[in-house]
Amino acid sequence: MANIGKELEVATIQFSAAQDYYTYPFQVTFGCTPIVTVSADEDVNAFITSLSKTSVTIEVSKSGYAGKVYMQAIERGC
């Protein structure tokens, strides 16, 4: 069985046309850097450019994208 932690956070982030990246501060306290996945609402690539125990920075591939990005963070067993 996978060695995962007990903390999980899920968020929907609304991007505006004026931003190509967003730094999301975690509301959960992770004991170590979590495993994070992101996906966009439309045909846009969403990717992680920075990750720590306290926040994740998400960028999108389409300049001026105004839509939702879904983020899931789960603590790895540490």
Give a summary of the structure in a few sentences.
About 0% of the residues lie in helices and about 60% in strands. By secondary structure, it is mainly beta. The two termini are about 15 Å apart.
Question: Which features does this protein show?
Answer:
elongated, single chain, three-stranded antiparallel sheet, mainly beta, 78 residues
Helix content class = under 10%
Would you report the number of β strands?
Answer: 6
End-to-end distance: 15 Å
The succession of helices and strands, N to C, reads EEEEEE
Low-pLDDT segments: none
Biggest β-sheet: strands ordered side by side in the sheet = 1-6-3
Q: What's the average pLDDT?
A: 92
Report the sheet-strand fraction.
over 45%
Write a structural description.
- By secondary structure, the protein is an all-beta fold.
- The chain is about 0% helix and about 60% strand.
- It contains no helices and 6 strands.
- Strands 1-6-3 form a 3-stranded antiparallel β-sheet, with no helix packed on it.
- A hairpin with a 3-residue loop joins strand 4 and strand 5 (about 55-60).
- It starts with a strand and ends with a strand.
